[in-house]
Design goal:
Blueprint (H helix, E strand, L loop, with lengths): L4 E11 L1 H18 L3 E7 L3 E4 L22 E4 L7 E3 L2 E9 L9 H17 L5 E2 H7 L23 E3 L2 E11 L2 E9 L12 H5 L5 H16 L1 E6 L3 H15 L2 H4 L3
Helix pairs in contact: 1-6, 2-5
Length: about 260
């Protein structure tokens, strides 16, 4: 980003699964159009299993509670790849940046920038989080083999994933359109009853971590590293209309969710 750029941050809020995914999609479109970097934080109205774009819907069934047990959950298909994620007690972020219209491919530097920012914030709380690539280099744990991946994202490992006490606590994914790139990711704050084998920071450190405070600190850290001044903002009228349309046409539509 150019030094002195200004961007927008959307305050931490809680939305449905379809609204969360549709908002990220609407931002990918609007940032390509308006060229305004946007950093967003959000949480989930109810426990949600989000499928990676290429995963099969039927493979999620064993993870879902019985329909008659009264525990309402959502299932949504992301527009990004990777494994399924139980979104429950977590802080979710999305960072959407304008790019050159001819630019293609992933942006490893964005993974590193955001994950290193979170790593530093956790370090200030005396939480030791390591990127998985550092652990692999030291021989602490072998890299996952292609084709040997778990259905759940937090049982997989990629280079920039953050690991605390042997458990993955942060993972991210990207999606690009012509003129912009979106990266969103999940930081596990505590374990979900739907995925007790995946502890969050509370279980691993013995102390709760406040999502609001994390979001504020992360905004400042990312702003400094990107050299962007993020100012508090909200969705424009056009973006809100886009979100509603995308919810209806895609993320709340069973044809999208069950497409594979």
């Amino acid at each position: 980003m150019n030094q002195g750029s200004t961007g927008r941050t959307l305050t931490l809020d809680v939305f449905s699964a379809a609204e969360n995914m549709a908002t990220d999609q609407a931002l990918l479109q609007s940032v390509a159009r308006d060229r305004k970097p946007t950093l967003r934080f959000y949480q989930w109205k109810q426990p949600t299993l989000s499928l990676g774009y290429f995963q099969r819907r039927c493979d999620a069934d064993p993870l879902l509670p019985p329909s008659d047990d009264g525990d309402a959950v959502s299932v949504v298909r992301r527009s990004t790849g990777g494994g399924a994620i139980w979104h429950h007690h977590e802080l979710t972020y999305s960072l959407t940046l304008p790019t050159d219209f001819a630019e293609m491919g992933a942006r490893p530097d964005l993974y590193k920038l955001v994950h290193e920012s979170i790593r530093r914030i956790l370090e200030d709380r005396n939480i030791n989080a390591q990127p998985f690539y550092e652990m692999g280099r030291s021989g602490a744990r072998p890299a996952a083999k292609p084709g040997d991946e778990s259905f759940l994202c937090f049982q997989r490992r990629t280079g920039e994933d953050l690991i605390v006490a042997g458990y993955k606590v942060l993972g991210s994914a990207q999606r690009r359109t012509r003129g912009s790139i979106l990266q969103h990711g999940s930081l596990l704050l505590s374990a979900s009853p739907h995925a007790r084998a995946l502890p969050g920071l509370a279980e691993l450190t013995g102390s709760p971590v406040d999502a609001g405070a994390l979001a504020e600190e992360l905004t400042q850290c990312i702003a400094e590293r990107l050299r962007v001044e993020f100012r508090a903002g909200e969705l424009s009228q056009r973006e809100q209309e886009d979100v509603e349309q995308i919810v209806n046409e895609r993320f709340a539509n069973s044809g999208w969710t069950d497409r594979r």
